[in-house]
Amino acid sequence: MTNASYTLTFVLLAAEMVTFGIFVAPLPFSIRKKFFSFLAESPIVAKIAYGLKIAFIFIAILFVDALQRMFRVAAEVETTKAGQGMQDVRTETNFAARKFYAQRNTYLTGFCLFLSVVLTRTFYIIQDLIHAQDEYAKLKKATAGKTRADGDAAKQVEDLKRKLAEKEHEIRDFETLKKQAKQQAAEYDRLAEQYNKETGKTSDKRRD
């Protein structure tokens, strides 16, 4: 039962390493977003995550047990060396094997628990990164739209300025024509008055 438990722990550790490799792989943003959205929203993934939480609790118990075994084997080795010593080669080999297996199980379960924490934290960090990239893309799009709108507004202002300048030019031309018309009317009145005077004098001479 214990060997099967550590075998399953090793399989879970290998799966965690593969998952971590997928998490940090340089995937395109669209694929990464869909993948993490699936992991966050899928009910199947949620059930698997719940089962893994229970498995990690069991692995934590194995870690504590393996740690106790490692300390106990180390204490037995020190006691044997301090007392009678390693008189038999088989006894020494047996102690070395027990110590090796205790250390291996401790490192196996400990690293599995550590990698589970790293995976969880990495998952949330990448989710925050995806959210930040989405917000940046929306802000960039809004800024581009605003810049385009500002450009259109500036173009409209330039058109209005050009039309206003044309109207001002037409008004100046009209004022010039009006002034010229007044001058011509005044000149016409002067000439008409002068003509009337000359005509009146001529008429008086003929009567005499």
Description:
The structure is a single chain. This protein is mostly helical and 208 residues long. The chain has one domain (2-147). It contains four helices and no strands. The model is unreliable at 202-208 (pLDDT under 50).
Please tell me how large the radius of gyration is.
49 Å
Distance between the termini: 158 Å
What percent of the residues sit in helical stretches (DSSP H or I)? over 70%
The average pLDDT score comes to 77
Total helical segments: 4
Low-pLDDT runs: 202-208
Question: What coarse outline follows from CA principal-axis ratios?
Answer: rod-shaped
> What amount of the residues lies in strands?
under 5%
- Backbone structural class: mainly alpha
How many discrete domains?
A: 1
SSE series: HHHH
The number of distinct β-strands equals 0
Largest sheet: none
Protein name: B-cell receptor-associated protein 31-like-domain-containing protein
Keywords: Receptor
